[in-house]
């Protein structure tokens, strides 16, 4: 077995009765991908670690599903500034929990990556997380996003559920959105990513497809595409929903978001 040491940044959270759960919530259940395959709508690859490790996986891999959804739903190639929510939530090593992050996006909105980028010019975590980097223009852009879009989230399963039920729920949720999942980052055996029984998760990542029993992952560490064990026992999972509040004509359809079945074959 190969164990890959990485920074990660996922912190567990309590699933409380007031949090929404798949199949028992008011979150709209719009079926967007009949085959549950989001590969062709994935956003650009992003590193949560450049010269510094951010421990920001819960932010990067909450925005990744949102950006994927917007490619499918709005035909928009959005890329959001992870640093904005990182700073707003006061995230620092060892990380944060994804429920806090999703609620912060609902509160503060989102801004373009170009307004607050993460580049190799940033050499310290203090610089990356500097609250003074957020300008009034950024605050206004985040609030504008909130007035234009409705964003929601729900748990796909709870940590106490049986692994088979978790995977059944994961497959169901993938018709509605990509699913963010907690995982152990990372252990590999014979080319498949695995975890030990009862091992606590320390990373937040995104599942874009359940392929022949294997969850397929789009991640913030290389290799960005990962194939997981069929009985990988995730502790936590979330799916997301986004809709427009302001009517706006759709741009031309992005052809690649409607070729899920084709891409499903070529990545086998």
Low-confidence stretches: 260-268
Mean pLDDT: 92
Q: Output the radius of gyration.
A: 18 Å
Beta-strand percent range: 15-25%
Largest beta-sheet characterization:
6 strands, antiparallel
Specify the CATH homologous superfamily: Cysteine proteinases
Which properties best describe this structure?
disordered C terminus, globular, 3-stranded antiparallel sheet, 268 residues, alpha+beta, Cathepsin B, Chain A, 7 helices, 6-stranded antiparallel sheet, 9 strands, single chain
Question: Could you write a compact summary of the structure shown?
Answer:
This protein has 268 residues and is an alpha+beta fold.
What does this structure look like?
This protein has helices spanning 57-73, 82-88, 98-108, 125-128, 136-148, 163-173, 260-266; strands at residues 2-3, 149-157, 179-183, 187-189, 192-194, 203-211, 214-218, 225-227, 237-244. It has one domain: Cathepsin B, Chain A. The protein has a 6-stranded antiparallel beta sheet. The chain has a 3-stranded antiparallel beta sheet with strand order 1-4-5, with no helix packed on it. Strand 6 (203-211) and strand 7 (214-218) form a beta hairpin. The longest helix has 17 residues, at 57-73. Residues 260-268 have low confidence and may be disordered. It is of the alpha+beta class. It contains 7 helices and 9 strands; from the N terminus they run βαααααβαβββββββα.
Question: How would you summarize the topology of this molecule?
Answer:
Blueprint: E1 2-3, H1 57-73, H2 82-88, H3 98-108, H4 125-128, H5 136-148, E2 149-157, H6 163-173, E3 179-183, E4 187-189, E5 192-194, E6 203-211, E7 214-218, E8 225-227, E9 237-244, H7 260-266
């Amino acid at each position: 077995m190969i164990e890959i040491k990485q920074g990660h940044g996922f912190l567990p959270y309590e699933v409380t009765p007031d949090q929404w759960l798949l199949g028992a919530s008011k979150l709209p259940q719009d079926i967007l991908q009949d085959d549950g395959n989001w590969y062709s709508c994935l956003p650009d690859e992003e590193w949560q670690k450049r010269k510094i490790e951010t421990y920001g996986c819960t932010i990067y891999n909450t925005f990744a599903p949102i950006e994927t959804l917007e490619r499918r739903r709005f035909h928009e190639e959005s890329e959001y500034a992870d640093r904005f929510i990182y700073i707003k939530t006061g995230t620092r090593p060892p990380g944060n929990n994804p429920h806090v992050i999703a609620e912060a996006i609902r509160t503060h909105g989102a801004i373009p990556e170009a307004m607050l980028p993460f580049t190799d010019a940033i050499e310290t975590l203090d610089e990356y997380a500097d609250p003074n980097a957020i300008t009034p223009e950024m605050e206004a852009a985040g609030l504008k996003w909130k007035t234009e879009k409705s964003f929601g989230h729900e748990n796909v399963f709870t940590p106490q559920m049986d692994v088979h039920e978790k995977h059944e729920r994961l497959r169901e949720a993938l018709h509605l959105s990509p699913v963010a999942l907690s995982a152990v980052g990372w252990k590999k055996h014979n080319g498949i990513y695995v975890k030990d029984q009862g091992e606590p998760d320390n990373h937040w990542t995104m599942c874009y497809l359940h392929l022949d029993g294997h969850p397929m992952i789009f991640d913030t560490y290389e290799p960005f595409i990962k194939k997981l064990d069929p009985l990988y026992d995730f502790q936590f999972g979330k799916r997301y929903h986004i809709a427009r509040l302001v009517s706006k004509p759709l741009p031309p359809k992005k052809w690649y978001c409607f070729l899920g079945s084709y891409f499903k074959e070529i990545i086998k």
